[in-house]
Design a protein that fits this description.
This protein is α/β, with parallel strands linked by helices. It has an eight-stranded mixed beta sheet with strand order 8-7-6-5-4-14-15-16, with helices on both faces. The longest helix is centred in the N-terminal third of the chain and has 23 residues. It is globular and about 55 Å long. The two termini are 30 Å apart. The model has no long low-confidence stretch (mean pLDDT 91).
């Protein structure tokens, strides 16, 4: 059993090592719970020690101060890390009912929301459950590298996948590994299909990796861009963008660099200035806009290699991911029902692709509190369900799994 001793941390590297250790503890505890047992006592003690280490950091304006290189420090909002550790400790120490009560403290309407959403999904077994991760099944974190999945989240989602789904699929813009979704996930192996880099690469249920083919000339341009971005982030004033949010991620067929995080730690003027610098770099390498497309989410700058589409070149989106991945896996998408979940406009092409293949038996659940996005989703899928926060969705999954049992 992996154990975390009481410790004091001060640097960003120590922080990331600590969060990686919590992943190992949670992974072992999740396996024990899903095998019908209880989480080891050492698991709760280890997470309590990790939480104490985070709370013991010096704070400034509500954020933890972490040493960067011996000379500079960074301020980090650790709300996600501390909150998820706290919820897992409640889960391990007091059980599932206490955890659900804890979730309801944060979201008082959670029990009613879960029952409302469960009604139209009751009794169904899904051919596919296709979902985004961050903001959909996972609460948002200020840094991808420390966004380790909580144990309760993994237990609830895996129960649902095993009980009610034939093909459970994550599709995320993060890389598959080094550093990617596999490095922050706590779900047991062979429980989910992981489509990463917006589905250009994936890991199937047997553990086999496959990838969408990339033109060698385009890959050479992407390699050049990655080298230039690395140099850009080494300049004074720009290094912080590699430390916040998604940081700098080299994905399969695309690159992501953060320009802001969910806590708004970067002044807007500086964030926009960085967006302008990155956009200028892309234009310098691809002046005719033939090879790259830029997607600005407001938090991340996604630089995506184009592919050939019906109307010419286009960026690879989650709709393309659905068509590629389901074809590779041999899933008969005409045979529903399907459940598609997301939280941003970038997930709508995913929904459209599934509905195109199975218009009558595709259900959709969007996690959002934005009226405009909810309206657009209902236009794409009239029977769309709306959840306010990810914890409502994962509690719903647990509720549906228990119904099957």
């Amino acid at each position: 059993m992996t154990e975390i001793a009481r410790m004091e941390i001060r640097s960003l590297k120590e922080f990331y090592r600590l969060m990686a250790a919590t992943r190992e503890v949670r992974l072992e505890a999740v396996s024990a719970i899903l095998d019908g047992g209880e989480p080891p006592v050492e698991a709760a003690e280890s997470l309590e020690n990790a939480l104490a280490a985070l709370r013991g950091l010096p704070h400034e304006d509500g954020k933890a101060r972490l040493d960067l290189d011996g000379e500079r420090t960074v301020l980090a909002d650790l709300t996600y890390e501390t909150t998820e550790l706290d919820k897992d400790i409640v889960y391990f120490r007091q059980g599932e009912k206490a955890l659900l009560d804890r979730l309801a403290e944060d979201h008082p309407a959670l029990p009613e929301e879960v029952e409302r959403l469960a009604e139209p999904l009751a009794g169904k077994r899904f051919t596919t459950f296709i979902t985004d991760r961050d903001g959909t099944t996972n609460n948002y974190c200020g840094r991808y590298r420390s966004s380790v999945q909580s144990a309760y989240n993994a237990v609830f989602l895996t129960r649902f996948a095993r009980a009610r789904v034939d093909n459970p699929v994550f599709i995320t813009s993060a890389p598959l590994s080094d550093f990617g979704i596999l490095d922050v996930s706590v779900n047991p192996e062979h429980s989910f299909i992981y489509g990463a880099s917006k589905g250009r690469e994936f890991l199937d249920l047997s553990g086999n990796r496959r990838a969408y083919p990339v033109d060698p000339d385009k890959q050479a341009l992407l390699d050049r861009l990655n080298a230039e971005l690395t140099l850009l982030l080494e300049r004074p004033g720009y290094e912080r963008f590699g430390l916040i949010g998604s940081g700098l991620q080299f994905k399969f067929g695309q690159t992501t660099v953060a320009r802001q995080d969910v806590t708004g730690s970067i002044p807007e003027e500086e964030s926009r200035s960085f967006l302008k610098a990155v956009s200028g770099l892309v234009r310098q390498i691809d002046p005719d806009n033939e090879n790259f497309r830029i997607e600005d989410t407001g938090l991340d700058i996604e630089i995506i290699l184009t592919i050939e589409g019906e109307g010419g070149v286009k960026d690879f989106d989650k709709g393309d991911a659905i068509r590629y991945l389901t074809g590779e896996l041999g899933i008969d998408m005409a045979d529903g029902p399907h459940l598609v979940c997301g939280d941003t406009a970038s997930d709508l092409p995913m929904l459209a692709a599934v509905r195109e293949m199975c218009p009558k038996e595709t259900a959709c659940l969007l996690v959002t509190q934005k009226d405009d996005l909810a309206r657009r989703t209902r236009e794409a899928c009239p029977q769309a369900l709306i959840a306010p926060v990810p914890d409502v969705l994962v509690a719903l999954c647990n509720r549906l799994a228990q119904e099957e049992e």
